[in-house]
Specification:
With 135 residues, the protein is α+β, with helices and mostly antiparallel strands. The chain has one domain. The protein has a 3-stranded antiparallel sheet with strand order 2-4-3. A hairpin with a 4-residue loop joins strand 3 and strand 4. It is elongated. It comes from Zoogloea oryzae. InterPro entries: Puta_zinc/iron-chelating_dom. This is YkgJ family cysteine cluster protein.
Length: 135
């Protein structure tokens, strides 16, 4: 799935990705925020969509059911207790500001996001796409 309006970037084609370098995110259109985000229960607590008491006393399956119903989780892997965050119809992460293309929960972002691009489908590379002028 190519990011809309961004040159030769296709998040599904790793050969179109750019080697990460310092400052690359400064003018990026946040294409990484269009990929599925897998999170653990600790990430959901940090995001404040699950409270610590609930995380300790509620079964992950029940939490997944509630968050799916609320539109925050798109999938739950029962075997590994990994939640996949839901995305907007555009493919964007729910926590990405559509206008600024910046993360609205940056200080609380999940470990998957914190570790990108060191960890991911092509470690050390990004699905970089320059931001449109004026954004």
């Amino acid at each position: 799935m190519a990011a809309p309006g961004f040159f030769n970037v296709d998040v599904d084609r790793l050969d179109t990705w750019t080697r990460y370098r310092s400052g690359l995110c400064n003018d990026c259109a946040a294409n990484c925020c269009t990929m599925p985000v897998e999170v653990r229960l600790a990430d959901l607590v940090r995001l404040e969509v699950v409270d610590a008491f609930e995380a300790e006393h509620e079964a992950p399956k029940q939490i997944a059911r509630r968050l799916t119903k609320a539109g925050l989780v798109g999938h739950f892997n029962f075997r590994n207790s990994i939640f996949t965050l839901a995305r907007r119809a555009s493919g964007d992460c729910l926590f990405l500001d559509a206008t600024t293309r910046r993360c609205t929960v940056y200080e609380r972002r999940p470990d998957t996001c914190r570790k990108h691009p060191q960890v991911g489908p092509r470690p050390g590379y990004c699905a970089y796409g320059p931001r449109a002028k004026g954004v």
